[in-house]
Design a protein that fits this description.
- The protein has about 300 residues and is an alpha+beta fold.
- The protein folds into 2 domains: about 10-155, no CATH class; about 165-250, no CATH class.
- It has 6 helices and 17 strands.
- The chain has helices at about 30-40, 135-150, 190-215, 245, 260-270, 275-285; strands spanning about 45, 50, 55, 65-70, 75-85, 85-100, 100-105, 110-115, 120-125, 165-170, 170-175, 175-180, 185, 225-230, 235-240, 250, 255-260.
- The strands form 6 sheets. Strands 1-5-6-9 form a 4-stranded antiparallel beta sheet. Strands 10-13-14-15 form a 4-stranded mixed beta sheet, covered by helices on one side.
- β13 (about 185), α3 and β14 form a beta-alpha-beta unit.
- α2 packs antiparallel against α3 (about 190-215).
- It is globular, with a radius of gyration of 21 Å.
């Protein structure tokens, strides 16, 4: 999405954009932007006709520039939903951003792999409507199916083509009062199984922590925790920043992007029959009562 003529690779390991070299300017990938909007439409989102990129400022070793090109105020698509197990799960936004480098920890050292830095990344932000691990499973599989039907990606979690960073907290009722535990975002999860295990671990950990500390959610105690797949447990990485800490401002090197009604209509027409639509059609053609019993 935001690469120079030669993106990082074994042959060209020094991409000037990824490494934030002086004079290197980002260039949006048109196809990636169109795919992002198609995915948003498939998730019943509304398209922002006027959209722009922003700089999300934070300092971390995997971000050479000191900021990430992302979207905050005017993402490509907003306010969608999916229906799973008869429940509507809200989609806050589907937006574009650039990927960062990958940190590889070896003993006391950390290596940085810039091969994926600057690669187009679509982020789907759901509303806090998921209240069970079983619903998480169905939600992730549903999103994966849709992405594959659209031909955007194979969405293979084990190959890093799909990532899930669950934000978890608990609603606990005691003595007629309802309390909410502090929000925790879990990073470094490399499989669906890891996502489910991380959520189950956090449920147990937050329950025990609440019993001991009675600490409840507020604006200052959000944390980011990593997932250790070998130990099957999360570990504290850092206090999580808020939107004000990121100091968002419009990306000066990429002009605003305008979409007209015809472009949006053409993208809608290009959508294939989606999984739920196909399932509904098959159920109408082959109703259960007409099925022969298996012998």
């Amino acid at each position: 999405m935001f690469s120079s003529t030669f993106p990082c690779s074994a042959q060209f390991p020094h991409c000037p954009v990824c490494l934030a070299l002086p004079g290197a300017l980002p260039v949006p990938n048109k196809q990636a932007c169109l795919w992002c909007i198609k995915l948003g439409l498939a998730l019943n989102c509304r398209v922002n006709k006027h959209s722009f990129f922003e700089r999300k400022n934070y300092f971390y070793p995997d971000l050479a520039k000191g900021y990430q090109i992302s979207q905050y105020q005017k993402p490509f698509t907003v306010n969608g939903f999916v229906e799973i197990q008869g429940q509507k799960i809200g989609i806050n936004r589907v937006h574009m951003e650039e990927d960062t480098a990958k940190s590889q920890h070896q003993g006391d050292s950390t290596l940085l792999d810039f091969n994926r830095s600057g690669v187009p990344l679509v982020e789907i932000v759901s509303e806090p409507d998921i209240h069970s691990v079983d619903l998480v499973k169905d939600y992730l599989k549903h999103i994966q199916q849709i992405v594959r039907y659209l031909g955007i990606s194979q969405d293979d979690v084990e190959r890093g083509q799909m990532r899930c960073e669950p934000t978890i907290n608990l609603e606990i009722e005691q003595n007629g009062q309802v309390f909410y535990t502090p929000l925790v975002e879990v990073k470094n999860v490399a499989s669906f199984t890891g996502v489910f295990q991380a959520i189950e671990y956090e449920i147990d950990r937050q329950t025990e922590e609440f019993k001991q500390t009675k600490q409840v959610k507020n604006d200052t105690n959000k944390t980011t925790r990593g997932w250790d797949a070998d130990k099957r447990q999360t570990f504290l990485q850092r206090q999580k920043e808020g939107s004000a800490d990121y100091r968002y401002f419009p990306e000066p090197d990429i002009p605003p992007i305008e979409w007209i009604d015809k472009e949006i209509a053409d993208l809608k027409k290009s959508l294939p029959e989606l999984p739920q639509q196909k399932s509904n059609r098959y159920q109408k053609i082959y109703p259960y009562r007409d099925m022969m019993p298996l012998v």
